[in-house]
Amino acid sequence: MPTICPNCLRLVRTGAKYCGFCGTNLFLTTKDESVALPVSQEKASINQKSKKQKQAKPKRFRTSQVVSIISIILLLLVIVLALIVRYWSEFSQFVVQILSLLFGR
């Protein structure tokens, strides 16, 4: 059964001592089993990692949406405040006229 190189994750023929692509030693002196996993186990672990990454993307998308919405709201508030500050005297006179019409002063 072919194995996968732990360094470059390419298929390597069974029994190879070194990876033909990157030169990584596939048989360490301690015979670490994580170095030369069978293809099916390695694919399963890669599939699990990719599922976790797919689940993380919507969360990042939601976060960027929230940041964008908050930025737009803050920008609109700044624009409204700038207009109020700029036209405060006209606005206050307008409010006084309306109040005098309503309450008859």
Write a structural description.
The protein is mainly α and 105 residues long. It has one domain (3-103). It has two helices and two strands, in the order ββαα. Strands 1-2 form a two-stranded antiparallel sheet. A hairpin with a 6-residue loop joins β1 (3-4) and β2 (11-12). The radius of gyration is 33 Å and the shape is rod-shaped. It starts with a strand and ends with a helix. Residues 29-33 have low confidence and may be disordered.
Q: How many domain modules? A: 1
Strand order of the largest sheet: 1-2
Mean pLDDT: 78
- Kindly name the structural category: mainly alpha
CA-based shape: rod-shaped
Radius of gyration: 33 Å
Order of helices and strands: EEHH
Count the strands? Answer: 2
**Poorly predicted tracts of residues:** 29-33
Q: What is this structure, in a nutshell?
A:
By secondary structure, the chain is mainly α.
Key features of this structure:
105 residues, two-stranded antiparallel sheet, 2 helices
How is this fold's topology laid out?
Layout: E1 3-4, E2 11-12, H1 39-86, H2 88-103
Antiparallel strand pairs: 1-2
